[in-house]
Structure formats: structure tokens, C-alpha cells
Amino acid sequence: xxxxxxxxxxxxxxxxxxxxxxxxxxxxxxxxxxxxxxxxxxxxxxxxxxxxxxxxxxxxxxxxxxxxxxxxxxxxxxxxxxxxxxxxxxxxxxxxxxxxxxxxxxxxxxxxxxxxxxxxxxxxxxxxxxxxxxxxxxxxxxxxxxxxxxxxxxxxxxxxxxxxxxxxxxxxxxxxxxxx
Length: 180
Description:
By secondary structure, the protein is mostly beta strands. Helices cover 6% and strands 45% of the residues.
């Protein structure tokens, strides 16, 4: 079930158009994307905003937080979550990209990441997530216990470089041909 994220006043921020796309941090920074948990556009029915207004807290052992993210450049990224497990058991988290894609596939870009219970949020990361430039609907999933999410970040490790065949295809696509 997809639930629009609601403010403390009970207003749907997504419907009111008050939540924009998360994008590159800083002016002209093409290597880091910072996404505040409070910018979630939807949550599973087992998630809610935490009392501080900056974090999201799950109320069930399984669920997700959904974000609209603008990736500035194609490449391999380090995916970083600022998150903490709230229960005594180990929790698994992972990031899904291309939510709602036409193929109906699940694009898990991090694989499962184990998270131990802690009184404070921890930075957990996974290297090498492939991301294309543009708008992305992403979900941070959790299973095995409740979590509190503060932020997710994407840091460019290696920009995508065109191969010779991609350069050739791009060159051919830019030409116009007259067919008789």
C-alpha cells in the first residue's frame, strides 16, 4: 500500500506539491546527492514521521520509504544510509531503484545490508551502485525489525564512460539520413 507522506498537520505534502525532487547537494556539485528522510514522497503503511520532523520511523518489522531522487551524472555510486535499528534483532535494509518500472522488475541496487541495533544512527554503505543520470523513484526497504532513517546519500565513485560502440551508436543517431 502506498501512503502519501503527511506533515505533522496531517496534510499530504505530495498532494500539496510541497515536496520537490531531492537533487545534487550544493551549487554545481555533480558528485554528491543528499536526500533527507523528511523528503519522502510515500511510505508503506508501517512507517511514519518521527517526532523530530527530520527522520522517518517504521512501526512494523517490514516496510519501505519512497523518494524521488535526481541523479546528476551516470556512473557508479556509493550508496549511504544514515539509519538505526530500533529493535533487539538484526535488521536488513536495501535500496530499490526504478520503482514502478514497466517491466515489473525489482532493481535492488545495494543488496541486503545487515544493521545491528544501536542507540544512535549509523552510516552504512554499499559501493558500486550503478545509476543513470535523471529522475529516479527509489525505495529504502527494511525487514526483520523497525528502523529510523535520517538520510540517504549517493556519492559518485566513477563516472560512466562511453565505449567505442556507444560512441559510434551516438554518432549514427545524431546524423540524418535521406532514404530514397
